[in-house]
Design a protein that fits this description.
Length: 128
Amino acid sequence: MKRKDVVSLAAERAFDALGFRPGKSRLQRTVQKRMAIAMAMKPYCNNYEIAEVLLRDRSVVYHYLQNHDNYIQHWDGYKELYDIAKIAVTDVLADYDINQKISLLESQITKLVLARDEIKKKFEEATS
């Protein structure tokens, strides 16, 4: 599965969990949900990826990031929405990130084994 597909799947899971659909609504509860989903995705995605699934501009995601901590403390209902979105997003994106890291490590191990074998071969040739 491609990264874009995984990001979309994570967003869909969060949308379903919060009863949200991307759009242009500026109702406070809708904005809270949109922001909660964006911030739940932030540890795994860049602003462009988040903005794309939310049908927003990346600068909106940056604005959310700047205000997130304040909203957690002072915006009624936002923390609960964020916690729900975080669980939905993490279930998908954390597994994907772990698998990507494992693939990267396996690739690096393969390269290191090949380099080791080449060095051994050259050493054996030099000492023979």
